[in-house]
Amino acid sequence: MLDSETILTFWIASTLLALAPGPDNIFVLTQSAVHGKSAGIVTTLGLLTGVLVHTCAVAFGIAVIFQTSETAFSVLKYIGSAYLFYLAWKAFRAKGQAIEADGEGRIKLRKLYVRGIIMNVTNPKVSIFFLAFLPQFAEPERGSMVLQFLELGGLFIIAGMSVFFMISFLAGSLGQWLNRSSRAQLVLNKVAGVVFVGLALKIATVHH
Fold this sequence. Notes:
Layout: H1 4-19, H2 23-35, H3 37-59, H4 63-68, H5 70-93, H6 109-121, H7 124-133, H8 145-178, H9 182-204
Helix pairs in contact: 1-8, 2-3, 2-8, 2-9, 3-6, 3-7, 3-8, 5-9
């Protein structure tokens, strides 16, 4: 079990990391602005499900593969990059309405949840980051390292959820105001496309 000092230190570090501009919070901001608050919340849940995958990978040793294998690292990052380019293509083609909207003009939340998972899981830098970050707060003297990693991952998820939900509400409110204009919605879609391209290039160009 983690002591209170470790929990507090890790919580502060996790919150600051979630606040720092990066692919995940920019992704949440974009989805919230384009599709609304609920879309941002569901995207956040998808991203944090990906964090859970990375946490388990570290806890059970799988993440080491991506740290030691250049091929595994490259395959995963190119899959993630290709998916983001696909989202950019859809955003650029979208008219003055929500991307992938159904008959009622609302995006299917299930698709956003899956999108968040893919976005996070296919970023090999996240696996390596967790592999380097979590062990700094775990000590063998406290007991099972696996349980400590899982506990730390849970704290990271809660901290990230708090920050990303805040981003979702703020960006969603702005997007709701902009969506009253089809021209503004069209601009939002193009901005989303540019963001997706930027994220895709960022992932594609990271080095092992």
